[in-house]
Amino acid sequence: METLQTLFAWLPYLLGGFLKNITIALSAMAIGTVLGATLALLKFSKKKTVQVSVSATTSFFRNVPTLVILFYLATLLPNQWTPIEGLTIPLTPTFKASLALASSPLGFTAWNLYAAIENWRKGDHHAAMLFIPNWIGAFLVTTLASSVSSLVGVDELVGRSNSVINATDPKYMIPVYLLAMGLFFAFCFSVSSLLAQFRRWILRSRI
Amino acid sequence: MTQLRRNRLFGALLALISLCFECNLVLAADSPFIKSPTLEAIRARGEVVVGVKTDLAPFGSVDATGKSVGMEIELAQKLADGLGVRLVTKGVSAENRFQRLEQGNIDILLATAADTKERRSIATAIEPNYYAESVNVLLPRGSKAKDWSDIRGQTLCALQGAYFNKPISQRHIIELQMYRNMRDAELALRDQRCAGFLYTHSALQYLVKQPEWSDYIVTLPPTLKAPWAIYINRAEKGTELERYIGDMVAQWHRDRTLISLESTWGLQPTQFLQEAHTLWSQKDAHGRYVCVRDSKGHWPVECRNQAFITSEQASGIKGLGLWVKETLGLPLSIIYDPFDAQRYFFGALWTLALSALSILGALGLGYWGAKRILTGSVVSVAVIKFFANFARMTPPLLQMYLVFFGLGGLMHASFNITLSPFLVAVLALSFYHGGMIVFSLLESAKLKQKSNPDFQLTLTNLPSLFEHAAIGIRTAINNLTKATTIASAIAVPELLTATIAIIADQGNVDTMMNLLLFVFYILSAFWLAMLFWAERRLMRASQATN
After folding, report:
1. Among 2.60.40.10, 3.40.50.720, 3.40.50.620, 3.40.190.10, what is the CATH number of B37-121+229-291?
2. For residue B31, what pLDDT is reported?
3. Cβ–Cβ under 8 Å, residues B110 and B50
4. Is the pLDDT score of B243 beyond 90?
5. Beta partners for residue B86, in sequence order
6. Do B158 and B200 meet the contact criterion of CB atoms below 8 Å apart?
7. What are A's interface residues with B at a Cβ cutoff of 8 A?
8. Residue B347, pLDDT score
9. Has domain B339-545 been given CATH number 1.10.3720.10?
């Protein structure tokens, strides 16, 4: 009972952290999709050098761990960037996390969008349209992966869970972690249930 | 006569010239310090940002209201008061403090940082040093250890980024389990994952006086005494900011500010502060302080501390590595420093072992789960489906935390069992990716059953599912090899942990980070190639039996 009260008292704070996870994941998807789509389109180029360098870039982003890129950006990027005199753009930890997490959707989009466009040209529209539910699947994986940004000091859900445990008592550790996992699970499960229906709709529809 | 006059004139001219030269020198000596961009920014903002410890009472910690308190926070306040600006404290950890300074996140670093040669190459250390401390080990009350040789070969918990980790581990042949913050290290010690906690002597002395640590003792002789320095950015060397802080610290030594703060915060009197007080308040025959800056702004040699602790070893296989360092400018310490080479090599082995076992675990769990869902009773199908979904829809980092700190603590308290961080990491990685594989196999098995309703999932017809399931499985395995880095959060000494430890000692961030990217690129490609090979073997085997 006491545990429930404590959890309830901290719930808004934890939910705020989870909102940060979703924000990071969405920004990462946006950055990764735009860059990945550029790579996918470049892959149709007739030039051999362009094709080779696009494949190399794609496989690089598919093979390098997000956490390593995250540490890379957190330690090597400055905290603000002044492209021209008088204009200073702050590079917040949250922004760096989004940038690092964009590596995986970048690889995903570059790889799968190319295949989707080819399928569409071949007339296999169903297979091409499956890009959309797969993209949402990649978004869910990115949301889960965004939890590692707590390791470089972003106060998202996992970071905030640790703060709550520190501020209260270690006896709340298991309930707080379970609550955080429950939030991730509830979000991913509801999105992926909708996704399954969406998939079925695409495969049944006439496009 | 004229000759003499001419000579005199010449002499006067010379005197004038030399006088002017001297007056120039005097002018220069008036301000040997260049303008400080940081100091200007501090004045413009009206606040100074000081990086402090948040988990190391009595030097720097956070009180119940979230406010920073401690001896170092009082010193920071004095610096801010002297500048006439507001103090803003920012929490830093042993692992990230020098990067925060380099990035301009903080103006001044006042966070129990020892003065070492390596650190002087990545930041500007303020002289004089403001404190000096040695190292000790927090041991459980029952421990009989009286000397460092008594704990040889044992495993100690330690914090990532402390200067003494490397020399202690080398000199006393001690295994270190590196944690990212105090909380994790303390929990690990309580769950007896390690024989003791390696840390700053006075902080441990303070800790054992707290009721919750009454079951622990500090019995070894303190060792590896090192002076502590306030640090500012590397680019701020020789600026007014360096002079201002240096003068303040000198003043604190003279007027016993540091000595009285030491006793206010319940620390045992250190010999260092007594000696520093004597040294800095020493006066010459004319009643002037001996330790004053010369015309170039330097302290006299006798007032400076020349003996920096250095963890660099002079011996070892240096040839190639030193050549790389000197000709290419790459501080690739894993080649020329045997200690770094060893930790990196073992880091790579741990990463390989972690990947191999987790891949087997994930494939095994995936196959088992899919088979049970296809053949089990309604209840067991629902249960397994729920767990597989839960496994793939919760972050592996949280799974590791829950099992390692949460369940691990409970298990230790009730059954006196300690969980190995490596096994916990293998478990979480297998569980998460096994959940992914269950659904890949399930989907393609269902596709098969459409055309062939009698299709059963067995090991022999597993290869026939690959046509559809391969992409899903490959994605999961690729994800897994990358996710092994997450195990660094629970002190598995894999590659990322080794890299961070080396960076903390050597300051070679760029080189080590680029190397890590490269190594992981190779590792991921290796595991994908292994998977392709295994797929082909299975395909061929199934063709042979058919």
Report:
1. 3.40.190.10
2. 58
3. yes
4. yes
5. B47
6. no
7. 59-60, 62-69, 71-72, 74-80, 140-141, 144-145, 147-148, 150-151, 153, 158, 161-162, 165-166, 170, 173-174, 177-178, 180-181, 184-185, 188-189, 192
8. 94
9. yes
Q: Do B220 and B172 meet the contact criterion of CB atoms below 8 Å apart?
A: no
Task: Write the pLDDT tens digit of every residue in B480-520.
Answer: 999 999 999 998 999 999 998 888 777 778 889 889 999 99
User: Looking at the partner chain, which of B104, B396, B489 has a beta carbon nearest the beta carbon of A78?
Assistant: B104
Question: Same fold for the domain at B131-225 and the one at B339-545?
Answer: no
CB contact under 8 A, A64 and B521: yes
Of A67, A75, A178, the CB nearest to B496: A67
Query: What ipTM describes this predicted complex?
Result: 0.92
Cα torsion at A113, A93, B489, B341 (round to 10°)? Answer: 90
Q: A200: phi > 0 → left, psi -120 to 50 → alpha, else beta; which?
A: alpha
Distance CA B202, CA A136 (A): 53
CATH 3.30.300.20, domain B131-225, yes or no: no
Q: Full-prediction pTM beyond 0.80?
A: no
Question: Would you call B516 and A68 a contact, using CB atoms and an 8 Å cutoff?
Answer: yes
Domain spans of chain A? 2-204
* Chain B residues 391-450 within an 8 A CB cutoff of chain A: 393-399, 401-402, 405-407, 409-410
Tell me, what's the pLDDT at B480? 94
Which of B393, B399, B517 is opposite residue A68, by nearest beta carbon? B517
Per-residue pLDDT averaged across B266-279, rounded?
Answer: 90
Chain A and chain B share a number of CB contacts under 8 A equal to 117
Give the nearest chain A residue to B98 (CA atoms): A75
Architecture of domain A2-204: Orthogonal Bundle (1.10)
**Contact between chains at A151 and B483 (C-beta distance less than 8 A):** no
